[in-house]
Structure formats: C-alpha cells, structure tokens
Amino acid sequence: MGKPTLFVTLEHGHHLKSSSNKLDEKFDVHYWPHSRCLSHEEMRANVKGVFGIICTPSNIIDSEIIDAAGENLRVIVTTSVGYDHLDVKTLKAKGIRIGYLNSPAEMTVTVAEHAIGLLFATARRIANDHLALRKNVDFWNERLANNQRYTIWNSAIGIIGCGKIGTAIMKRLLAFSPKKCFYSSREPKSEADAMGAEWRSVDDVCKNSDYIIVTAQLSEETHHLINRARIDSMKPSAILINVARGGIVEEEALVEALQNKKIARAGLDVLEKEPIEPNNTLLSLDNVVVTPHAAFSSSVVWDRILDLTMENILAVYENREMPSELL
Fold first, then answer.
1. 252 catalytic per annotation
2. What are the D-isomer specific 2-hydroxyacid dehydrogenase NAD-binding domain coordinates in residue numbering (predicted)?
C-alpha cells in the first residue's frame, strides 16, 4: 500500500519544499507547480483521493472541493488565522479535521507592525513621495506644495476589533502620543481600558477617528461591517487601514469614497477578491497603498507556519491531538 497523498497549493508549496520537514517521510506530497494561484477548477482536479490539503486564504474549500477529494480526505490545514474560506459546516459534518494558525504570537507582532507601516505610508505620503521622486527628480523642489502629510501625534486613533492584533497595534501606536484612542469590540477589553482607550460603537469609531484600523474577524456578522454609510460618515481627512479580511469593508463604496475624496486615503493588505485583478480600480488611485495580503509574513512567522502546518498534518496521520485545531 502506497503513502497517502497530500496536496499543497501554490503560495506555500515552495516554502515546504525548501524546508526540512517530515511530510515526505509519511506522504506522497503533490505541490501545485505553476507560478500562479490555481483556479477553483484546478483545485478540484488536483485533490482527488487525497488524505489532506494544505491551503491558503486564496483557496476556497467548499462542498465541491470536498466532494471531489472523496472519502480519503481526513484533514484540511490552512496556513492562516482566518478560516472563512473553508466550508467548516460541511467539513465538520464529514468528520474532516481542520488545522489553522490560532493567532501565534509571532503573527500578532508582524500584522501589528504591517498595519502601522501602512498607516505611516499613507499618512506621511511615503509611498506617494517615493514614486513621485522616481518619476521626476524635480519633485524634490515641489515636495512642499502638497503638504497633506499627517501625524499620529495629537490625532484620534480608532481600532475596529480589539483582539490580540488590535491590542498590539494600540500598544505600539500609543508611543506616538495620539490625543484619543477609541476601539470597538463585542465588549470592553480590560487591557485596552488600562491603556486609556475608550470603548465605542463602530459608528462612533468611524465618525470620530482620524485613522480607522480594521482588525476584526470576518463572519456573517462582520461582512461589510465598514459599509457605505459608515464610510460616508468618516472625516474627509480620515485614513482607513485594513489588515483583517477584505470582506469586512464594502470595497465598491470605499473606491467611490477615495475617488471622490470623501475620505483621504486607505492602506489595504486585504481585498474582497484575492489575488487582486490587474484592472482593479484601487491600483490606479494615488491615495491608496495596497500590499498583497502580506501583513503576516516574516521569516520568523514562516518558521512557525511550517512547524504548525506539519505538526497538524502529522497529528491527524498519527491519530492524536492537533496542536492547533479548529474545534
């Protein structure tokens, strides 16, 4: 009897290949070989008969994929904290175990740092200035003509979703002496309150903040939480940062607000449809900084991702407790 099969999708296959891992000892590991994200149809064709799938947030694991895999499928491991791309209900009903990252401390730090990086890139016009100077060195002499560079000092910070990542962002931003710090969550958070932050409704955070940073989890409840009405309620000078999930922000409404200067700028690591399409309007706007869902990524985090991914798969193979299982 041959080894059971694992299928590894594009974005993390090369990391597993290049790392020292135990998977090849136990499994026949198939890696998506192309330098592009596989389509849903290609995913369906590649999972037939597999024991497990290692996927990313870009890969939708729905009932079609689960049915295509067949009765051998025992485990899905996503290399992400979020699992909204997985049909959890169907997987649970079929007894298929689910592994995820469960907010490792290393990832909390990197996402917090990336959010702050996006905030400075937009508020201080760092990305714009860099591109302008590359295109035209005379911009050096024109650089003060557009003095719309904002500071964190004496500003109002608003955080939507104050879990581990939101709290980590707050802790770091307080070093820059904002005037106010608001946060929205299901209930008050003692750690945030101890830092002097004020628990407010989502509406209040959107209306009263200079910088709105989205770190909430995506769910049916939070889908389009930052909708057209809330975007329209923001200050004309407001900057929106999203390092959570694209579906939390109503992207069409955000694009229109940015085009019409209803809000000042946005820094986005996540989008409603990923990977981003070349004709996405956001890429043509000069008041947006977009990064490719990379907030979590660092060398330290990759080591942690690989360790957890391998251990989650091996735990199912050996019929033992997974180190990070979605229960």
1. no
2. 116-295
